[in-house]
Amino acid sequence: MRILVMSGPNLQLLGTREPERYGSVTLEEVHARLVALGAELGVGVDCIQTNHEGVLLDKIASARGHYSGIVINAGAWTHTSIAVRDALLGVAIPFVEVHLSNVAAREPFRHSSYLSDVAAGVVFGFGAESYALGLRGLVARLT
Ligand code: CA2
Fold it and tell me: Which one of the listed residues 67, 99, 114, 131 is annotated catalytic?
């Protein structure tokens, strides 16, 4: 079984800016941890990050037949993109929405998500650990 981990806009900055909000671990380190956790859980993990919404949409579309589940931090697109929602619904692959920060405790525009109501689960507020918790939850759901 393979799981795709996707991160959206500006998340390449992780560990280099705003550590008080997003933590000091880099996205590269997060990816390495997830691959290791996947090995522990008996699943293959591939990770991608993009700042281009169309690239994310194409990656979601091509995930069909290759991945059993998706862990996604769609970043700001979470709050704006019906297209990302439609792409995830279109491939019908179970996904977990994750966020580093506690979006419920931030600006009102971060309180709404186009993904939460169609996600298998949502994890937010645990920094980089949100991704690991999301991966664990998704694998438990799929096995
Ligand atoms: O908390 C999260 O994971 C977010 O998805 C992060 C997004 C934000 O728009 C969402 O509301 C919540 C922002 C990602 C920006 O990434 C940075 C990482 C480190 C430093 C600066 C930006």
Answer: 99
For tokens 């994310």, name the residue: 56
How crowded is residue 61: how many other Cβ atoms within 10 Å of its Cβ? 12
β-bridge pairing 44-49 and 69-73:
unpaired
37 falls in which pLDDT band (50, 70, 90)? Answer: very high
| Exposed e or buried b per residue across 66-104, where buried means at least 16 C-beta atoms within 10 angstroms of its C-beta | ebbbbbbbbbebbbebeebbebbeeeebbbbbbbbbebe
φ and ψ at residue 96, rounded to 5 degrees: -115, 130
Predicted TM-score (pTM) of this structure: 0.97
CA of 13 to the centre of ligand 1 (A): 9
Longest dimension (CA), the chain: 39
